[in-house]
Design a protein that fits this description.
There is one protein chain. By secondary structure, the protein is α/β, with parallel strands linked by helices. The chain has a single domain, classed as Rossmann fold. 27% of the residues lie in helices and 22% in strands. The chain contains seven helices and eleven strands. The model has no long low-confidence stretch (mean pLDDT 92).
Length: 293
């Protein structure tokens, strides 16, 4: 059994981790380009946390400009065992109100043009993604949020749109008919890449607004979203403290730790060497010599 090391990807309004002790900011290079920002690593309740602001310092990156591959690659290089994503979302359901938290368990990907995989020409691999969120980490995160007094919805389908514009009323109503419960712009391909990197991924999303589906509702505006986020940020930070205090002392293995078992289609003797070199963190147990693991 191993120790927990939680990678936290902070979304809109959450650019610093808060209660990290012995914090260090570190620039970590990725074989997939520039990550959103340096990581900050430290301890909460004795548990190692490494924090990465998804949109960069000062929210300088839009949802389509984020280098999702570099972000996940960097967290893997830092040795994180699990990834908790914190995001702002819109609600597509009356019962999911602004200020609520949702532990997302399903995803619909409507993004376009984003790099969706670490693999490709030279090394082809297909991982399973039927259940994109880790139920164990999602459960711990939901429990932690509930202890802060937040209203927490355990489970929900998130539709990821390209943005940066918010959806039209017609699109919003269509997503409701598809069975989506909440809407955002960043969970994909983030969740896909975490699975390829064999990192259990949970998404604890903070509702900032009802999307534009309500006949009598106002259009979605950034000012309103930021106002709700200001109230939720401290609760999100408190959730991290509660999560750290609730984790078991030792981390049992997760099936997601071995998500790449049986996923490779390309025969190893045909692997492209340059592609393999870039996968030294994501798929190190396959591409690295045993003496270097």
């Amino acid at each position: 059994m191993a120790q927990w090391h939680i990678g936290v990807i902070g979304g809109s309004g959450l650019y610093t981790a808060g209660a990290l002790h012995m914090a260090q900011q570190i620039n970590v290079a990725s074989a997939f380009g520039e990550p959103s920002a340096p990581v900050t690593t430290g301890l909460i309740e004795g548990v190692r946390f490494t924090f990465l602001p998804r949109h960069g310092e000062g929210h300088r990156l839009g949802p389509s400009d984020i280098n999702y591959r570099a972000n996940i690659d960097v967290l893997k290089r830092c040795g994180v065992t699990d990834v908790l994503a914190l995001s702002a979302i819109g609600s597509l359901r009356e019962e999911i109100a602004p200020g609520d938290f949702v532990a997302v368990d399903q995803l619909i990907d409507r993004t376009e043009g984003r790099a969706r995989s670490f693999f490709g020409p030279g090394i082809v691999a297909h991982v399973g993604l039927a259940d994109p969120a880790c139920p164990r980490l999602s459960g711990y995160a939901a429990d932690a949020a509930a202890t802060t007094g937040a209203t927490v919805h355990r489970g929900g389908c998130y539709v990821a749109i390209e943005g940066p514009q918010f959806s039209t009323r017609a699109e919003s109503r269509m997503y409701r008919e598809w069975g989506a419960d909440v809407i955002g712009m960043t969970a994909m391909p983030e969740a896909r890449l975490a699975r390829e990197a064999e990192l259990p991924y949970a998404l604890l999303a903070m509702v900032t607004d009802f999307d534009s589906w309500k006949e009598d509702g106002p259009p979605v505006e950034v000012a309103g979203i930021l106002e709700v986020m200001r109230h939720n940020v401290e609760r999100a930070r408190e959730t991290l403290v509660k999560l750290a205090g609730s984790l078991p002392k030792e981390r049992d293995p997760s099936p997601i730790d071995r998500a790449l078992d049986g996923a490779f289609v390309t025969s190893p003797e045909l692997w492209d060497r340059r592609t393999a070199a870039r996968l030294d963190a994501v798929a190190g147990r396959f591409v690295m010599p045993a003496s270097l693991r």
